[in-house]
Amino acid sequence: MSKTRCGYVEDVELLTNRGTARCWRPVRGDDDRCFWHDGSPKTREALDSHRPEPGERLDGADLRGADLTGASWLRGRSLVGADFTGATLRGTDLTGADCRRATFDRVDARRACFDGADVEGATFDDIDLREASLDGTKLYRASFTDVRLDRATDFGDRVIYESLVDDAEDRETRVATLEAASWTYRELRRLFEQDALPQRSRACYLGEKSTRRRAAWAGGEYLRALKLEGSRWVMRYGTSPTRVVTSSVVVMGCSGILYPLTGGLRTDSGTYGFEQPVADVLAATPGQLVRVFYNGLYFSVVTFSTLSYGDIQPIGAGARAIAGVEALLGSVLMALLLFVLTQRV
What mean pLDDT do residues 91-115 have? Predict the structure, then answer.
């Protein structure tokens, strides 16, 4: 007895939110598969005549070489494992489509819309995505090779996984979602670098570092999280010399204030400090305060920069401890400033 139904089944056991379904469509002539799975070339006229009903799944559909220019009937469609090799998707609307594990090799997808689509695990090889929109698209573990982008290619302000973190039900899911976001930012950064889009590459770099920091906190890796927090605030993950300079000024200013309050400073012309910080500061005249804190700031600057002229010395264990810490911080921050500046050249 000849086969009358296609019976094609796409393996979706490892995919979430997607149950297995067997294709019930009738076979074509002597073939044992339906129009969507028989592997034959599909003309535009044939595609229009076989247009699926709303909600009809096209998992594993063979759309190799198909002309889908401007097609809107793929919107929200289940296309798990579909093969678009050599297809024309110029201006095609794939909004909200489930294209996990699909193949997009040698595809012209200029001005195509993938907004809100799921292309996790899909393959993009030799694809033109200029002027395409992928805002809110799930890209985790998709493979990108020889992808052409331009300034009009839109991936949104942030990857979709960051929006999904708040909906995570447990710690493990939260960490996994943040790791997916970090991976996506890293992959987008690589693509933007290849297409000479440095500003967008830098934005993705910052997004990757930010999600890695959040993942470290969520996963209980507190030492790693603190390291990333320090990098964030001191130098914006190695991208902002302004933050390094600001951090240096804060260290010098705070140290300059603390020296007179923790023992004082000794110079050839006298001692500058307060034995009883609160009472002495309140009793001092404006001129005295200026002289004391001016010397404190001066000593702070030469200590931070490790110049150490020797014309002024800290008094007491507290002031000496601050001087040692400041000298160490000065060396570290100046090295970081040099590092950040060389990164921007």
Answer: 97
